[in-house]
Amino acid sequence: MRFEPAPPEAPAESPQASPATTTASVASAASRPQAPGGAAPGTREEVDYDHRFAWDRPHRRSRAASALYLVGIVALAAGLVAQGVWHYRDAIAAHWPSTRPMLASLCAAAGCTIRPLREIAWLSIDASDLQADAAHRGLLTLTATVRNRANYAVAYPHLELTLTDAQDNVVVRRALAPAEYAGGTVDVGAGIGRNGEVAVKLFVDASATTQAGYRVYLFYP
């Protein structure tokens, strides 16, 4: 028995769109709005475009806020520096003398003054002596030297003189301001100069007391 091969099937014909359908599709596509760059709405190009501009607006606001924060931080830092200079102006002028003219100018405008430092630790009393005045009964003469061992001016201290009896009990005590022991020709407001000294000579009326010793003490009130 002989089998004959079957004849090949004819390819199926693809449906052809009618002219009316094609014209309607083109018109519909033309009527839809196009995204920038020619992309149709809903495509990735349109989403990226909208997303980029939506992100840029808060980003600009964020940069403006950061600039304001920076200005605020700089202003706060400048205020703290100015407050520190105001509070420590005496120490700054003492340790850095080159800044004194500038600080003096600022204080002239602000109504403040540059004063010498009050540092009692740098002051000492050298070679003090208390002697009775042979020419005046009951009159004592105190001589001493107040020395500044700092490398900058230090404010004049007060001087306290204490007379004691034989048992080291206090007989009389007197505190003297700088103008009382430094002499009228000394500029007390300028302080004792760097590595400088002040000679002290006081006359003490002790006619109403009996004393055997004395103590001299420096202090700031």
Give a structural overview:
- This protein is α+β, with helices and mostly antiparallel strands.
- The protein is 36% helix and 23% strand.
- The chain has helices at residues 19-31, 44-87, 89-95, 100-110, 178-181; strands at residues 123-132, 139-148, 158-164, 170-176, 197-205, 213-219.
- Strands 1-2-5 form a 3-stranded antiparallel sheet, with no helix packed on it. Strands 4-3-6 form a 3-stranded antiparallel sheet.
- Strand 1 (123-132) and strand 2 (139-148) form a beta hairpin.
- The protein starts with 18 loop residues before the first helix and ends with a strand.
- The model has no long low-confidence stretch (mean pLDDT 79).
List keywords for this structure.
221 residues; 23% strand; three-stranded antiparallel sheet; single chain; Immunoglobulin-like; alpha+beta
